[in-house]
Structure formats: structure tokens, C-alpha cells
Amino acid sequence: MLKVYAPGRAELLGNHTDYNEGYVLSLAVNRGITATGQSRTDSKIILHALDLKETYETTLDALAPIAKPMWPNYMIGVAAQYVKAGHRIGGFELSISSDLPMGAGLSSSAALEIATALFLQKAFDISIDPLTTTKYAQAAEHQYAGVKCGLLDQISSLMSKAGCATFIDCRTYQVKNIPLPAGASFIVANSGAKHELVGGEYNERRTDCEAAAHALGAPFLRDVTSAALEAGRSKMTDRQYHRAKHVVGENERVLAAEIALKAGKLAEFGQLMFASHESSRVDFENSCEELDALVASAKKFSGAYGSRLSGGGFGGATINLVDPAKTDAFIAHLGKLSPQCLVTPAADGAHLVCA
Ligand code: GLA
Fold this sequence. Notes:
Layout: E1 2-13, E2 23-39, E3 44-49, E4 54-59, H1 71-84, E5 92-98, H2 108-123, H3 130-145, H4 152-159, E6 164-169, E7 175-179, E8 185-190, H5 200-215, H6 226-231, H7 238-262, H8 266-284, H9 289-299, E9 304-310, E10 317-322, H10 327-334, E11 340-344, E12 351-354
Parallel strand pairs: 3-5
Antiparallel strand pairs: 1-2, 1-12, 2-5, 2-6, 3-4, 6-7, 8-10, 8-11, 9-10
Helix pairs in contact: 1-2, 1-3, 2-3, 2-4, 3-4, 5-7, 7-8
The chain binds alpha-D-galactopyranose.
């Protein structure tokens, strides 16, 4: 039996920057998906979601997306990429279980894709580099879930290191594991509001960002400075301008945050988080009442350095940077606003548990 594990991720800073070839800071959380299984000698694929008590069966030559349930799509979507790339995989049986809250903005879908990818590589002795692995997982998300995501979630789930923030340059895909200073406690506060990634809003944001870059004659918003955006404002619609303003600002904030992190300046880092949320709320419009209330509450708490929505938005969770001595008091302070708080260290990325 093979057992692999892939964690969820929290986005620390750099919202919707990944598909704009920008910068992101994230970490792997200490919750994730465990996948246990083995290869088969025939072409059957048997998948079990242990928590849901559901089983889905198909065969290697029938890997098209399915309407319902959703969860097998993330697994067969990954298997399909290996087949498409010409890797020799056979049938397999794989059981998944999770301690990662679903729809909380912690990217359970990427964890499931990465766990499946690692399992397939081990089960069928396939050797590919980590970046290609994340791209297979991303392709599954694009083709089987219809979300035109970047690579933030998949890279964070696979390449993060314990005790470190994960800095990703989404143009070169250089990943730096930056040691976190002492005195940083991360709390994910789930708002309980629905996370509407599957569907229109996310892809619409992407289209607006691409249109804004195009209007400025830039390949991506990564190539646009705040000054260039202001100078070219009249070349785009008002909505495109506001979307672009968020992304351009986020890129600048991530670069500033990297410096603050390396200097151990948590208060400065936290201010950038608050600014990021404000920009989401006003310009990118991917926040919601529940997330705004959580961030407003964090702002009032002395000992909370920063707080912002984490991930796609439209619900899900906030990520909070808090003085470790005040962790419990902070959770009590949020009270009913967050039905579920998760204190997480920066954890290791996906790995083989046993062969
Ligand atoms: C989701 C996507 C990521 C990224 C974030 C927003 O998590 O899957 O690729 O775009 O939203 O930063």
C-alpha cells in the first residue's frame, strides 16, 4: 500500500497575482489530504472518499469530467494529464481522507490533485519534476473544474517547507522558502460563507486583468507599475482599472513584505496584509460582508499584526498574523464571527508517507 499526503495552503499576500505572472507569499497549513492505495493489473480506477462514504468507479479510457459528484474530477483530471503526456499508467484503487475543511479557502482541491499526482508517480514509477507535477494538477482544475486558476495552490501544496513562507515568482516559477521570524502565529478564520470558486466570478476577474494588461500594451499585469496604470487609466473600463489596481498593488506589497519578513518586521508585514484586504474589498471586489467583519474585528485586537482574505475570495477564510501569546485571546475575540479557527504553523509540502 502506498500512502501520500498533501496539505492545503494559506495565501499570506499576493491576491490574484499568480495568473498575472506576479508574486505570491503563502504557506502550507498543517491539515491536508491523505491518499492511500495501489496500482491494479487491469484498467479499472476505483476511488473512495472515506469521509463522504462515496465510491466512484471508471476505467482509464473513460476519464472525461463528470457532472456529479465533484470530487472524483480532481483525481481523474490529474490521471488524464499523465495519460495525455504519454506516461504509462494503469488502473488503480485510491482512498482519500481529509482533515482540511472544504470550501474554507484552504485549497482542498489542489491538495487532492497533488496527492493524486504523487500517488500516480510512485505507483507507476514516473519521474517528473515538481513544477510539471503542479502544472498537471492545474490542468485538472482548468479542464475538470472549469476554474482558470494560477499555480499558487499547487506549488504551495507541493513545495512549501516547514517554518518557512513560500515566495513564488509566477513568471519564472522560482520558489524561495523564506524562514519565518519567531513570534508569528498564523490563524485561519473560516467565515463559513460559501466559497464560489467554481464558476463565473473568478474567471471574470482573470479576463478583466488580461484586458487591462492588453490595453496598456503589456503582456501581463506583472509588467505594469502603479504609475503606468494611472497614466493609462483612460485606455480601459473603470472596472478593469480597479481590478488591475488591486493586482499591481498586490505585487508591490508582496515585494515589500518579503523584505519585511527577512528583517523580522512583523508589524510592517501585517500592515501590508490589512492594505491587501482593503484593496480586495474596494478594488477587486472579491470580499464579502463576513470576511470584512472578520478583518475589521482583527484590526481592533491589539496583538493582531494583520488580517486579510486568503485565496480566491467571495467567502472562505481570513488569514491572521497574531502575537503567539495572544492566540487564544484572538480566537475568543473573533467569537461567533468565525465558527472555525485553525492555528497553523508553516508546514511541509506534500510527501510520501509510506511505500
Ligand atoms: C485561488 C486560485 C489561485 C489564486 C488565488 C487567488 O486560490 O486557485 O490560483 O489565483 O485564488 O490569489
